[in-house]
């Protein structure tokens, strides 16, 4: 299994990739066409291999046959990739090219529409989450500001008018938590202690 994997990696992918690079660099059209045919056949082989590995892995010498097939594709004597491309792939793709192009255009349009749809949906979810977080945060902020303003009012009331109610009554009548009235109560006793 590992031998098969590394053999296909080295001889099926890296070796042809290097010679494809040399063909592109030298701008030799004949070599370029040869390696393009190889890559088309190798892509079809890799796609088919995904399924055959599941169903035919029990077959005797299955992995050895895959190594031999890749060697046959690469061999300059057998010209396997060129043979398969010219006999089977090119005629099939030529006859079905219009249908394949139409399917690809439809798939591209559908994927774009789906991407836009899910993008809008994701933005709506994010906006809703941001609004909810802001409203919760705003509630906490307004509560905090209200407590500060009530303290300021009670301090001003306690200092400026001696006839007004003490700050303790302002605090007990509001719906604040327990630590806040005790804090203002200690401020009220502190201000009455000053008088």
Automatic annotation (TrEMBL):
Region span, Disordered: 155-195
InterPro entries: TB2_DP1_HVA22 (IPR004345)
Pfam name, any one: TB2_DP1_HVA22
Record's compositionally biased regions (Low complexity): 173-186
Superkingdom of origin: Eukaryota
Protein location: Membrane
GO cellular component terms attached to this protein's record: cytoplasmic microtubule; endoplasmic reticulum membrane; endoplasmic reticulum tubular network
Ranges annotated as biased composition (Polar residues): 155-172
Molecular function terms from GO: microtubule binding; olfactory receptor binding
Keyword Protein biosynthesis: no
Membrane topology (UniProt): Multi-pass membrane protein
Keyword annotations of the record: Membrane, Transmembrane, Transmembrane helix
GO biological process: endoplasmic reticulum tubular network organization
Residue spans crossing the bilayer: 6-24, 36-61
UniProt family annotation: Belongs to the DP1 family.
PANTHER family with a match to the protein in the record: HVA22-LIKE PROTEINS, RECEPTOR EXPRESSION-ENHANCING PROTEIN 1
Protein name: Receptor expression-enhancing protein
Native organism: Centropus bengalensis
Gene: Reep1
């Amino acid at each position: 299994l590992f031998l098969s994997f590394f053999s296909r990696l080295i001889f099926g992918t890296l070796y042809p990739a290097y010679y494809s690079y040399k063909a592109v660099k030298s701008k030799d059209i004949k070599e370029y066409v040869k390696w393009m045919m190889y890559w088309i056949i190798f892509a079809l082989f890799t796609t088919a291999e995904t399924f055959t590995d599941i169903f035919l892995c029990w077959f005797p010498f299955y992995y050895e046959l895959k190594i031999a097939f890749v060697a046959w594709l690469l061999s300059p004597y057998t010209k396997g990739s060129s043979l398969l491309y010219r006999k089977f792939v090119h005629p099939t793709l030529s006859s079905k090219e219009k249908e394949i192009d139409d399917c690809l255009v439809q798939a591209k349009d559908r994927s774009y529409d789906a991407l836009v749809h899910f993008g809008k949906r994701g933005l709506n979810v994010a906006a809703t989450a941001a609004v909810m977080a802001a409203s919760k945060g705003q509630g906490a902020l307004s509560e905090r500001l209200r407590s500060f303003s009530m303290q300021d009012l009670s301090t001003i009331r306690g200092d400026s008018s001696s006839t007004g109610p003490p700050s303790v009554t302002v605090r007990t009548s509001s719906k604040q938590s327990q630590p806040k009235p005790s804090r203002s109560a200690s401020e009220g006793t502190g201000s009455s202690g000053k008088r």
